[in-house]
Design goal:
alpha/beta; 9-stranded mixed beta sheet; 16 helices; pyruvate-formate lyase- activating enzyme; 4-stranded mixed beta sheet; 2 domains; 42% helix
Length: 489
C-alpha cells in the first residue's frame, strides 16, 4: 500500500474525480501521511478526434502523457479512457506498480465493449489490439472477453423488443452470510410475512397487467432474492402459484429459481418445484470446506449440499447451477482446488465462479472498516485460486459464457459463468449484456427498460428497505407503469 499526503484534481468534471479514485483503489493508494502532494491537470482539445493531455505533479516532479481518441469514439468516452490510461501509466512508471490484469477497464460489463466493437465492424484481431493497447488489458483477459462474446452470440441473435424477462425479488434469508450485502432480511414473523404476501400480490398483478397491455412475450422468469425457498412452505407454494399464473406462457424459454441453501429446503418445497414449470435451479455451496462454511455463517455442511443436488436431479430436464466464491476468509488455493474437484464430481450443468467482493453494508466490510481481525487470502493467493479453478472447470468440459465485474473484488478478478454445451442460462446473458427489458417485481427488484429508439437504458427501482416497499408499493407500481409507457407507447 502506498500512502500520499494529498491529491488535488484540477477538473470540474465529476467523472474525472471518480476515475482518479478508481485508480487509487486499484493501486491501493491511500491519502494520509505519505510520500507527497499530488496534483492532476487535464487539458482537452475538442476536435475530431479529441485530444487529451494529462499531467501529474508530485511536489516538484512533473509527469505528462497525451493522446487522441478514435475517429468513431464519442468525445466524452475518449476523454475518460485517455485520462485514465495516462494516469495509470504515469503511476506505474513512477512507483513500479505491477500491471493490472484488467488494465483500466473498471465497469461491470466489459463484454459490452467487445460486442459494440463487433457491431462496428472490427475484426477479432482489431478488438484484441484495442483491448490490450488502448485499455491495457492483459492478453489472457482479452482472449477471455473474446471467447465469452463469441459464445454469447447465439443467445443475443434472438432480438425482439417485445421479448422481455421478469425478475421476482423475494428479499428474505434464513440468516445473513458474512460477505453478503444484498438487500435481504432475516425471515420475519408470520404477521410481517402476511403483509409482504399482500403487497407482493398487488405488485405482481400490476406487472401482469402491464405485460398484457404492451403485448410483451415473456422469455425468462428469474426468481431470486434473498433466498426464495426461505419462505415457509405454504407461502412459498402461494408465491410460486402466483408467478406461474401471471408469467408462464407458451413463449417462456427458461424459469430459474434460486434455491441456494439446503437449510431452506423441505420435502414439501421439492414437491412444489417438481410440479412447477421451473427449468433451472441454483444450489450455492460457495465452498465445500466445512470450516469455511461455519466461518461465513452458513447453516449446512458440504454433505447437505450434495443431498440437495441429488434431490433436484430427480426432476427430469432440470438444469442445476452451483456458485462458488474465491477469496473467502481463511481459505487457500488448496481449499479451492478441493472444492472445485468435489463440485465437478457431481456434474452440475453450470458453475459460476465469483471473486469475493468487499461490499459496502456487508458484515465483512464493516469488520474490515472497524479493523477487526479478518484473515483474507492475499490478492496473489486469490489469483492462484482462480487459475486452478478455471483450469479444472475447463478440463471438465465447461466453457465460459458470461462475465461481469464488481468493485473491490479480491485479486482484481471477475465473476464468470461456465456451462456444459447448450446449458447456458439465457437470462444471465441477457441481463449482463443489457439487451432486453426486464420487469422487476418484489422487494429490491429493478425494472430495466431497453429503449431501442433512444439507444439507452432506463430504470426504476423498488425500494431495498422492506418497510418502504410495504408502505409505498403503489408509488413504485406507478413509476414502473410510467417508465414502460414512456418507452413503448
Amino acid at each position: 500500500m502506498l500512502k500520499i499526503k494529498s491529491i488535488c484534481v484540477h477538473s470540474g468534471r465529476e467523472v474525472i474525480h471518480k476515475l482518479t479514485h478508481e485508480l487509487l483503489d486499484l493501486f491501493h493508494i491511500e491519502v494520509g501521511e505519505g510520500v507527497g502532494d499530488f496534483e492532476v491537470f487535464l487539458e482537452i482539445r475538442e476536435k475530431e478526434p479529441v485530444f487529451v493531455k494529462t499531467r501529474l505533479r508530485i511536489d516538484n516532479e512533473k509527469f505528462s502523457k497525451e493522446g487522441e481518441g478514435f475517429l468513431n469514439e464519442r468525445n466524452s468516452g475518449a476523454v475518460h479512457r485517455l485520462y485514465k490510461k495516462h494516469l495509470y501509466e504515469i503511476l506505474r512508471e513512477k512507483f513500479g506498480f505491477p500491471k493490472a490484469e484488467w488494465g483500466i477497464l473498471h465497469g461491470v460489463r466489459p463484454t459490452k465493449i467487445v460486442r459494440r466493437y463487433f457491431e462496428d465492424g472490427l475484426t477479432e484481431g482489431e478488438i484484441f489490439s484495442r483491448l490490450t493497447e488502448d485499455y491495457l488489458v492483459s492478453e489472457e483477459k482479452a482472449r477471455l472477453l473474446l471467447e465469452v462474446s463469441e459464445r454469447e452470440k447465439r443467445i443475443l441473435e434472438d432480438r425482439d423488443e417485445k421479448k422481455i424477462s421478469v425478475y421476482i425479488g423475494i428479499p428474505f434469508c434464513l440468516s445473513r452470510c458474512f460477505y453478503c450485502s444484498f438487500p435481504s432480511y432475516v425471515l420475519p414473523g408470520e404477521k410481517k410475512l402476511a403483509e409482504f404476501a399482500d403487497v407482493f400480490k398487488r405488485d405482481l398483478l400490476a406487472a401482469k397487467d402491464e405485460i398484457k397491455r404492451h403485448n410483451f412475450k415473456i422469455e425468462c422468469v428469474y426468481m431470486g432474492g434473498g433466498t426464495p425457498t426461505s419462505l415457509p412452505d405454504g407461502l412459498f407454494a402461494e408465491v410460486m402459484g402466483l408467478v406461474e399464473d401471471a408469467f408462464v406462457t407458451e413463449d417462456l424459454k427458461e424459469f430459474t429459481l434460486e434455491a441456494g441453501r439446503p437449510d431452506s429446503m423441505s420435502d414439501e418445497k421439492y414437491n412444489i418445484i417438481f410440479n412447477s414449470p421451473v427449468t433451472r435451479v441454483s444450489v450455492n455451496p460457495q465452498t465445500m470446506n466445512e470450516k469455511t462454511l461455519i466461518r461465513i455463517g452458513r447453516k449446512h455442511s458440504p454433505e447437505d449440499i450434495k443431498e440437495m443436488f441429488y434431490a433436484f436431479r430427480k426432476k427430469p430436464d432440470l438444469d442445476i447451477n452451483m456458485d462458488l466464491i474465491l477469496g473467502l476468509p481463511g481459505e487457500t488455493a488448496a481449499d479451492v482446488e478441493e472444492t472445485v474437484k468435489k463440485v465437478i464430481a457431481i456434474e452440475p450443468d453450470d458453475i459460476t465462479l465469483h471473486a469475493l467482493a468487499k461490499k459496502r453494508g456487508s458484515p465483512l466490510k464493516l469488520a474490515l472498516d472497524e479493523k477487526e481481525e479478518v484473515i483474507l487470502p492475499s490478492d496473489d493467493e486469490t489469483r492462484k485460486m482462480s487459475k486452478i479453478a478455471n483450469r479444472l472447470i475447463r478440463e471438465a468440459n465447461y466453457a465460459p459464457y458470461y462475465l461481469y465485474r464488481q468493485g473491490y473484488m479480491s485479486g482484481g478478478l471477475e465473476n464468470i459463468g461456465f456451462a456444459k454445451p447448450n446449458k447456458e442460462s439465457v437470462y444471465n446473458v441477457k441481463i449482463i449484456e443489457e439487451c432486453q427489458t426486464i420487469i422487476g417485481v418484489g422487494g429490491a427488484a429493478t425494472t430495466k427498460v431497453v429503449d431501442e429508439r433512444e439507444k439507452r437504458i432506463k430504470a426504476t427501482f423498488n425500494p431495498k428497505d422492506l418497510i418502504t416497499y410495504l408502505r409505498d408499493i403503489e408509488i413504485y407500481i406507478e413509476k414502473r407503469k410510467n417508465l414502460l409507457n414512456e418507452t413503448y407507447n
